[in-house]
Amino acid sequence: MPEPYPPRIEPYAHGMLDVGDGNRVYWEACGNPAGKPALVLHGGPGSGAGPVWRRLFDPAAYRIVLLDQRGCGRSTPDAADPGTSLAANTTHHLIADIERLRQHLGIGEWLVLGGSWGVTLALAYAEQHPGSVSELVLFSVTGTTRREVEWVTRDMGRIFPEEWARFRDAVPEAEREGSLVDAYARMLADPDPAVRERAAREWCRWEDVHVSTVPGHRPDPRYEDPRFRMRFARLVTHYWRHTAFLEDGTLLRDAGKLSGIPGVLVHGRMDISGPADIAWHLAQAWPDAELVLIGGEGHGLGTSMTSAVVAATDRFRET
What we know:
Elements: E1 11-20, E2 23-31, E3 36-41, E4 62-67, H1 91-104, E5 110-116, H2 117-128, E6 133-141, H3 146-153, H4 161-169, H5 180-188, H6 193-210, H7 226-241, H8 250-253, E7 263-268, H9 276-285, E8 289-294, H10 303-316
Parallel strand pairs: 3-4, 3-5, 5-6, 6-7, 7-8
Antiparallel strand pairs: 1-2, 2-4
Helix pairs in contact: 1-2, 4-6, 5-6, 5-7, 6-7
Subcellular location: Cytoplasm
GO molecular function: aminopeptidase activity
EC number: 3.4.11.5
């Protein structure tokens, strides 16, 4: 199986794109300026696009474009700041940002690669702008539906009961039987910094738990950074409580709009955070997609998952 490309893939161009509403998003381009255009959509929401994403593409064949979505990474303003409004931070705003960046860079169509939350965004973008997308490579497939949000924030307590009890008990007692994502969003907006920090810390602690289903899992070191914790928790709860600002289930219902777009769906069978039926149902509704289920892998880019994603981008580099 192919390995990721060498780590020294540095940007040859970068910039800050004014997308309106007081937002400027960071973008960078790596690899071959004359190569096949490819766009990376990171997870989270709020993770930002780190250097590891560059290594999923052959830098001699691809013009690799990375984007920090609104409010995170190097984009401004920073959602880690409690005064940063998220009113103009929705899936529809992000889709418009992607199209603006494509036009800014003079790209006709591009391969779109997304992971986790980036899958939800990639599907929403491709269903709205199918003419802008040549192929889709998606791993750790999610649709950010109400059922998925309830699964992660409540039902998975059956699998991690002790850890989930701590996650639940961090919210006020009167709110524990309701929507936990709403309760956390309210705490993250509390005027008391101590309440906000506790909510961010406990949210990210639970995030680390529900992806820890494979041997050798290590806690995500990014959660040790208080600004990253706050940024990540604010953006995830913002998008999850609104089911990605999409009509619930619409991505699966509208999968026919992806007809003619080749795709590869890479998913770990041990991904309890995003069960494999999410990817399977999408593959049934999208005949041009190939589903690759990886035994022994969970949520994110494990060794075999990475190999499968690189194999997919290698396959599409000449098309």
